[in-house]
């Protein structure tokens, strides 16, 4: 099948998913709300392509076309859509309803949500059988494995098309069941929250928390450096999704995370989070 994908949201993940796709020769229509964000994303995609190629993580030549737009109507003839807008359930519901009204029936609609159950989002689309979630890792052009979430209403044909799409993107899918945070974020977001709480209590510095996870447990990156990479704004949004849907206080974002987001210290993307990153991206 000749894929042509629409990517909704040109932030951290949308831009990087676009890099992964065009780097594998799959054309992309990238949508966001304004031209400034799209211009920044085009620049990031160029830099990411260069980096991934230097690292041998993407084919060296033969990239596909990247079209950027603010008009959802430009998604009319894509073969699948990957939604990567901000982790706000009401926003995702609105965006998914809009996109499902534009694409042809049978077009796979994939959400890259961190934590919202597929079956909840399925209420917003015209054809719930066309919807599933792929939780790409950050950055998706460097990490091959992805979580694939099949909701109770996801169709067999959608799962088969997703397998085909992941093959075109050279990613390895791990299929898991539906529910808040799926597998990875049910565990990871709670760990990040607890790590931040330890710093808040003055029991350890961010450096010490991460050194313990990296040195003692062999994790490649500790929870707070991971949180800075994800974006602390996204961490707080994901924790709220998990807390609202489980009632589990372990997911209630701690004061330190909330304060950092209120101060605009989102991590790598703004230049400061738990660590200093030498300027915004
Ligand atoms: N950051 C990560 O490490 C990571 C990893 C896996 C999954 N995710 C998930 O991916 C999604 C995107 O996260 P992100 O970190 O890229 O967020 P981000 O804040 O960097 O980007 C979100 C983008 O969505 C755009 N947007 C908002 N409303 C829109 C609309 N109506 N139409 C089109 N675009 C719109 C925003 O302008 C912004 O550019 C979230 O669901 C998040 O939970 C994030």
TrEMBL record:
Segments forming domain 3-hydroxyacyl-CoA dehydrogenase NAD binding: 5-178
InterPro entries (UniProt xref): 3-OHacyl-CoA_DH, 3-OHacyl-CoA_DH_NAD-bd, 3HC_DH_C, 6-PGluconate_DH-like_C_sf, 6PGD_dom2, NAD(P)-bd_dom_sf
Residue span(s) of domain 3-hydroxyacyl-CoA dehydrogenase C-terminal: 181-276
Pathway involvement of the protein, from the record: Lipid metabolism; butanoate metabolism
Keyword Cell inner membrane: no
Alphabetical UniProt keywords: Oxidoreductase
Protein name as it appears in the record: 3-hydroxyacyl-CoA dehydrogenase family protein
Domain of life: Bacteria
Family of this protein: Belongs to the 3-hydroxyacyl-CoA dehydrogenase family.
């Amino acid at each position: 099948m000749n894929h042509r994908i629409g990517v909704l949201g040109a932030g951290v993940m949308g831009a990087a998913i676009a890099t992964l796709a065009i780097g594998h020769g799959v054309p992309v229509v990238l949508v966001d709300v304004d031209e400034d964000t799209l211009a920044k994303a085009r620049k990031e995609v160029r830099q990411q392509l260069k980096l991934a190629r230097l690292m041998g993580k993407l084919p060296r030549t033969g990239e596909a076309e990247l079209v950027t737009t603010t008009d959802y109507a430009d998604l009319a003839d894509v073969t699948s859509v990957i939604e990567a807008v901000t982790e706000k359930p009401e926003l995702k519901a609105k965006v998914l309803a809009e996109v499902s009204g534009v694409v042809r029936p049978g077009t796979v609609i994939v959400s890259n949500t961190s934590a919202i159950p597929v079956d909840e989002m399925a209420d917003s689309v015209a054809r719930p059988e066309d919807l599933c979630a792929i939780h790409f890792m950050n950055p998706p052009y460097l990490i091959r494995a992805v979580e694939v979430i099949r909701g109770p209403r996801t169709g067999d044909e959608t799962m088969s098309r997703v397998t085909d799409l992941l093959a075109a993107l050279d990613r390895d899918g791990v299929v898991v069941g539906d529910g808040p945070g799926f597998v990875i974020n049910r565990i990871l977001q709670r760990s990040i929250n607890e790590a931040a709480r330890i710093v808040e209590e003055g029991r350890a510095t961010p450096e010490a928390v991460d050194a313990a996870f990296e040195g003692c447990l062999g994790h490649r990156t500790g929870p707070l450096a991971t949180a800075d990479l994800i974006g602390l704004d996204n961490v707080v949004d994901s924790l709220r999704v998990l807390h609202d849907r489980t009632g589990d206080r372990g997911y209630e974002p701690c004061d330190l995370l909330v304060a950092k987001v209120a101060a605009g210290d989102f991590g790598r993307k703004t230049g400061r989070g738990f660590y200093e990153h030498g300027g915004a991206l």
